[in-house]
Amino acid sequence: MHILAKYLEDNKIKHADFADKVGISTKHLSQIVNYKTGVSFTLAGTIREATGGVVTADMLLDECANKATA
Asked: I want to staple 37 with a disulfide (CB 3.0 to 4.6 A). Which of 10, 31, 44, 68 is the partner?
């Protein structure tokens, strides 16, 4: 499971609510958590801020890189 999907599930946060909070569409968020697209450095930082540092930019970027090489 994607680290961000786990965070959202554990905290009972709806994808639409989180997408609004970080300024992306629900579709874009879905693509991220389903490994269809990665995240930019800027978006990774925004997600880090929105999760209070629980999901860090490094975690997001590493997860995307690891999935791409798997």
From this structure: 31
